[in-house]
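Dear colleagues,

As part of the handover before I leave the project, I'm documenting each prediction I ran so the next person doesn't have to rerun anything. This entry is a single chain, and its sequence is reproduced below.
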Amino acid sequence: MGEEFPRFVEFWLERPAPEAKSLRLHALLDSPRATGAYTFTITPGESTVMDVRSRLYLREGGDGIATLGIAPLTSMFLHGENQPDAGDFRPEVHDSDGLSVQAGSGEWLWRPLVNPQFARKPGVLTTSFSTTDPRGFGLMQRDRSFASYEDLEARYELRPSAWVEPIGGWGPGTVELLQFHTPIETHDNIGAWWFPQRAPAPGEAVEYAWRITVSDRQPL
């Protein structure tokens, strides 16, 4: 209830130098309860890297913000080896098979994804991993064998992983994983983000910077 998805309403693209290897653009984010400025520096290659800098402000008034999701990721999981579907000839159907987290202590965590089945009305399965100054988190596609998917069209074994690496200290908070039920593979039903322990007060500037690496290589 009460979700709000701010959108980017304006973009500015810097003209790259003739020998530039990266592209930089700036964006204005706006919504009823938040506004902010972003800079994206995108470097293509065998692994695509995007450095993100953001400054956010929450607005006065309204009901406030209970959850402020930073560096959100989205993916799809229909079924897999931990949740087979006898009615599908393909052994697995997913863009990612798990959430990987490297906590601030250096500990690695792995959470296999599922397609939740709810007996009554649709809901969401939420899992949180608390840490301070996380080193990274991502929605990963670790199974790279064609035999695991047997889909000549979708080629799920080639789907990239997305890894978020915080730049600077993010303080205490949680990496939150959201899993919704989906009956078909065209719906993204997986989300992950960083949820800071303390949301800024209205009008207070808060800055976050991170690097996203999108790649089919392991490890990122």
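DSSP finds no helices and 15 strands in the chain. Residues 94 and 134 are 26 Å apart (CA to CA).

All the best with the project,
I.
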